[in-house]
Amino acid sequence: MEPRLIDRPEKSRYEVLAGDDATETAGFAEYHLSEGEIAFIHTEIDPRFGGQGLGGLLARGALDDARARGLRVLPYCPFVRGWIAKHPEYADLVPEARRARFGL
């Protein structure tokens, strides 16, 4: 089964589910949501699932959801910040006045 992304607002994180039946938490991206902004704080992929592209799937899915919800993105997490730097089509999610702070 293909990996899937879910938002767990009660845990303030997106999770990527993988494994044979795509029910095992393979990684997560923690966030803080407030006043039209989502601040990504920490991203982690279980080492057992490393090298499968799940971090990218997680970042893309979370950022796509932020865009769909009209949220501004604050990428404090180095992984999310680096992913945006490699995919500049997502840089517009970061408020222009704050991009330099994040090196974007």
Structure explained in plain terms:
Strands 1-2-3-4-5 form a five-stranded mixed beta sheet. The protein has helices at 54-68, 78-86, 96-99; strands at 4-8, 13-18, 24-34, 37-45, 72-75. It is built from three helices and five strands. By secondary structure, the protein is of the alpha+beta class. The protein is globular. The protein is 27% helix and 34% strand. The protein has a single domain, classed as Gcn5-related N-acetyltransferase (GNAT) (Aminopeptidase).
Q: Which SSEs are present, and which pair or pack?
A:
Blueprint: E1 4-8, E2 13-18, E3 24-34, E4 37-45, H1 54-68, E5 72-75, H2 78-86, H3 96-99
Parallel strand pairs: 4-5
Antiparallel strand pairs: 1-2, 2-3, 3-4
What key phrases describe this protein's structure?
acyltransferase activity, Aminopeptidase, five-stranded mixed sheet, single chain
Task: Provide a brief overview of the structure.
The chain is α+β, with helices and mostly antiparallel strands and 104 residues long. It has three helices and five strands.
N→C terminal distance = 35 Å
Rounded to the nearest angstrom, the radius of gyration is 13 Å
CATH topology: Aminopeptidase
Number of helices: 3
Write the CATH architecture name: 3-Layer(aba) Sandwich
Give the fraction of residues assigned to helices: 25-40%
- The H-and-E topology, N to C, reads as EEEEHEHH
Q: Could you say which overall geometry the principal axes of the C-alpha atoms support?
A: globular
InterPro entries: Acyl_CoA_acyltransferase, Gcn5-rel_NAT, GNAT_dom, GNAT_YJDJ
Organism: Streptomyces roseoviridis
Keywords: Acyltransferase, Transferase
GO molecular function, one term: acyltransferase activity
